[in-house]
Amino acid sequence: MLKTEQFILNVGPQHPSTHGVFRMIVTLDGETIVDVDLVLGYLHRGVEKLAEGRTYLQSIPLTDRLDYICSMSNNLAYCTAVEELTGFEVPERAEYIRVIMAELTRVVNHIVCIGFYLNDLGAYFTPVLYCLREREKILDLFEAASGSRMTCNYVRFGGVAQDLPEGWLDQAREVVAAFPAFVDELEELLSTNEIFVARGRDVGVLPPDVAVNSGVTGPNLRASGVAYDVRKAHPYSIYDRFDFDVPVLHGGDCYDRYMIRILEIRQSLRILEQALTDIPGGEVQSKVPRKLRPPEGDVYHAIEGPKGEFGWYLVSDGSANPYRWHVRSATFVNLTVLPYLCRSHTIPDLIAILGSLDNVMGEVDR
Amino acid sequence: MNAAQMFDQLEAHFGDAILETAEEKLPVVRVEAARLPDVAAYLKDSPGLDFDLFVSVTAVDYEDRFEVVYLLRSLKEGHTLVLKVQPDREDPVVPSLVSLWEGARLQEREVYDFFGICFADHPNLKRLFLWAEFPGYPLRKDFQYTASIPYSEPPGQEQAYNL
After folding, report:
1. Which residues of chain A have pLDDT under 70?
2. Which of helix, strand or coil describes residue A123?
3. Percentage helix, strand, coil, to 5, in chain B?
C-alpha cells in the first residue's frame, strides 16, 4: 500500500469548537486522521486540593464551577454524596425541588449541547441562539430560586438553600408546558434535514463494547445501545416514584448522539410534569448540625448527570474538612474514546465528533 | 450476587491475595498489589461477576500509606465493587489495568499526575493536567505550597506550538 508522509496538525487550545480550552495534536495521513493526542489541563484549578482546605459546606460553590452549564446537578451530586456519608434526612418537598432542578438542568444541558453541535457543523450561531433563547427561560427560573443564573449554589446537605419564591411553580409549569413545542420545532428543522443527517450518520461510530470498556456513560453510552442510567440502575433521591423511560438508540454515531438528547429532553419533561403536579408543601431543610463533622470513613455516590455518571469519592477523617474529595467526572472519562472515534475520519468530522460528545472542559480539568 | 457470595468466590479463588473484605455502603475488597491484574481480570470475565464498567480509579494519601481505589460496576448484574490496593509509600507502583479496561487510560494518568503513583505497563504514562516539570505531586499530603509555580515549556513539544 502506498504510504504518504504524516502531518501533524495542532487544534486548540483556543479554537471555536473545543468548548473550552483544550488542545488536540492530530496526526494526519493526507486528510485522514491517524491519531489524536489529547492535551488537557488548561482549565485546571486544582479543586480537589482546594476542597481539602475548606469545610464541606464551603465546597459547594466549587461544584458550580466544574460543569458550569449544569451547576444544579453538580450541587445535587455532591450533596447526596455527603448525605450518604452523614446519613442526613431530606424533607419531601426538598426532594421534589431537587428532582425538578436536576431535570431542568438536563433540559438546559441537552439544548445547549445540540445548539453548539450545530455550531460545530458549520451552522454558525444562528441555531444555537434559538436554543439559548429557550434556555434563558429555564435560567430565569434558576435565578428566581437561587439568585444566580449559572452558578446556582442552591442544594444543601439535608435540603435546599431556601424555599421556592411565590409563583415559581406556576411559572415553571408554564415553561414546561410550552417546551415540547420548541423541541418539535427543533426536530422539524434538524432531524430530517438532509445536510444535518449526512454530517452525522455513520460518523464517529461508537460500538457498545468499546463504549462500555472505555467507561463512557450518559447519553453517549445510550446512543450506542446500552441502557445504563444511574437513575434506574442505582436509584437515588425519589426517582423511583416517577414514570419515565430510558431512551436507547443503536447507531452510536453523531446523529444518534444528537437524537438521544432530543428523546431525553422529552423524558425529562415527563418527569417535570409529574414532579410539578405532586410537589407537597412543608419544610425544605432538615435539622443539620451547624458544624459538620462526618464520621470517619469513605463513600462513593453518583447521580445521573446530564453528561453521564457524575459522582464523588469522599474520605472523612472525622474533622470538619474532607480528607479526600474526588470528582468522578463524566466528560473526562468520555474523552477517552475521542481518539478511537476520530481515526480514519477527516478534520471536519473530528469537530463534529467532539461536538456530539458534549464536553465541558471545566469538568474535565477540574 | 450479594457481597458475601462475591467475597467467598474471590477468597476461594485467590486465597491469601485477598487481604481484607468489608461490607460497608458498597462491598470493599483489598488485594495484594502484585495480584491486582489477575483479580481484576477475574472480576471482569467471570460469569456472575461481569464487572464490565470501569467507573473510576483514584488514590488517597493516608500519610503512612497510599491507597488506590478502583470502582467497578457490572451493567448486567447491577452490582458495584470497591477494589483497593496499597502500594509501597516510598516507591509506589501498581500494575496498570488499561489492557483490561480502556477507561483506565486517562484516569491512571491523572492519579500519576497528582500522587506520583506509577502504573506499570501503562501505554503512555505521562502527566495529564500539569506540565512535565511541575515540582512534586500536589495531592500528596506533604506537598508544599508556594505562591506561584512558574510554567516551563515541556521539552519536545515546542514544534507543535510553532506550527
Report:
1. 1-2, 18
2. coil
3. 25, 25, 50
Q: Is the dihedral of CA A291, A295, A297, A298 positive or negative?
A: negative
| DSSP 8-state class, residue B65 | -
pLDDT tens digits, one per residue of A88-140: 889 999 999 999 999 999 999 999 999 988 888 888 888 889 899 999 999 99
Query: Does the predicted model carry a pTM greater than 0.90?
Result: no
Q: Domain span at residue B41?
A: 3-161
SS3 state at A290: coil
* All domains of chain A in start order, with CATH: 6-365 (1.10.645.10)
The enclosing domain of B79 has a CATH number of 3.30.460.80
Q: What is the mean pLDDT of residues B1-14?
A: 80
CB A20 within 8 A of CB A256: no
Chain-chain contact of A328 with B56 (C-beta, under 8 angstroms):
yes
Best residue of B58, B64, B76 to probe chain A, by most A CBs closer than 10 Å:
B58
SS3 assignment, position B70:
strand
Q: Which pLDDT belongs to residue A178?
A: 92
For residue B66, how many other CB atoms are within 10 A of its CB? 21
Q: What is chain B's mean pLDDT, rounded?
A: 84
ipTM: 0.84
d(Cα B73, Cα B57) in Å, to the nearest integer? 12
Residues of A in contact with B61 (CB under 8 A): 324
Task: Choose, out of B24, B53, B54, the residue to mutate when testing the contact with A (most A CBs < 10 Å).
Answer: B53
Q: CB distance from B25 to chain A under 8 Å?
A: yes
